[in-house]
Amino acid sequence: MTIAACYLSSEGVVLGADSTTTMYVSCPGPNPLQTEHHYNYAQKIFQIGKESTLGITMWGLGNLGETSYRTLIAEFADTLLSQGARTVAEVARGWNLFFWARYSQCFAHILRRVQQLLGQSSRTPDEEDELERYRLGLFGGFCIGGNLMHDRTPFAYEILYDPTLTAPGPTTPLQSGSTRFWGCPNLIERLIFGLDTGIFQAIMQSGKWTGTQDELIALMEPHFLGQPHHLPIREAIDWVHASIYTTIKTMKFSHMAPVCGGPVELAVITTDRPFRWVKHKRFDAAIAEGGLSDV
Description:
alpha+beta; five-stranded antiparallel β-sheet; 14 strands
């Protein structure tokens, strides 16, 4: 899991993410088991190409089988160099098609099984569990943001994928002056709206609430914490950092698994400069913080 964010303003795009990745490690022996491990120095924000004005962040799957996102994004950047792009929307659609081709190839047997399960008129409890495992294990998304040198207007696009799809999903534009959070947005939703999506759905399904969904929203709306639109770029960076950092610390001290953690990474693409790191891990980050002390 991940906490990833994008703030889109008239000055540029701010991308942020945590650094925790979850991997399943097989234990040796005659009856091998898989155990869940969390590693805190993954990279979830990348520049698309060298010295470019485009960036990408991600959540969900940590890689495609034996191929890393670092490699996939570099290969996609190579295609942009050879083929070009006229708009950020075209870049986002290009990545969507590029990723889906690799995703559907890597998990072809699972996607076929998912469609088989979805096509059944009824499913056993075991089949429902199987389908839910695939849905939870193979979903995710990307946010691509930035501008192109011939048009310095900043844009950002959301791309979602999951194993129930049979073709690439839409590329959805983000609204200027707003922030989007993905992966593990529970804390930010609770902070701003007073409840997150899970709590909202629990209330609606409890049988205790007799009104409509819109009536519940109308009841909560006066208590929402309003957010200013079109923050100055440095304030936007502060907002994205604060949101991710707070989520990491809340998850750390909660009863839940530490699926968000590690250093916060931040990147910015302003309308007058290419992709720049605001906070970025050095390659020795995993060993530099663990020094011994005689205190």
